[in-house]
Design brief:
141 residues, 3-stranded antiparallel β-sheet, 3 strands, 68% helix, elongated
Length: 141
């Protein structure tokens, strides 16, 4: 099974579990089916987005150290080669900023609109709900 498929099923199962727990903790029951369907729809693009960010801004640099002490850039592996991973702090911070700004804006808007649409709410009302609730959701979580 491909990684993206495994991740999607894991996300759907975790969503189902959290929605079931929420039924006991909140007075209003969450739309469990809509949330699980949304997990199946949203996880693959988010997975690919994260892979893109990691390719564009690698979080670690790999250094190989040959037995003679010479350090070379490259990929891990090979006999008699010591591999050292070094965190690339600038890239890690770049990914955090991009994900917490652009990524969160898109994901919150899609979540607010798509979950309502999956419940049968008309598109116009979904868009209005996104407009009204997006700033609140982004501000207060």
């Amino acid at each position: 099974m491909k990684t993206i498929t495994k991740v999607t099923f894991q996300a759907a199962i975790l969503t189902l579990c959290s929605a079931l727990v929420a039924t006991f903790l909140t007075p209003k029951n969450p739309p469990i089916v809509a949330l699980v369907i949304y997990a199946f729809l949203a996880t693959p693009p988010n997975f690919l987005w994260q892979k893109f960010l990691e390719r564009r801004f690698p979080g670690y640099e790999i250094e190989k150290q040959e037995s003679n002490g010479e350090v070379k850039g490259g990929t891990p592996g090979g006999g008699g080669v010591t591999v050292k991973r070094k965190a690339n702090v600038a890239n890690i911070l770049s990914k955090i900023v991009i994900e917490q700004s652009l990524g969160s804006i898109v994901n919150v808007a899609l979540h607010l609109g798509v979950v309502r649409a999956l419940q049968g709410v008309p598109v116009g009302e979904c868009l209005q709900a996104v407009k009204e609730a997006h700033i609140v959701a982004m501000t207060y979580g």
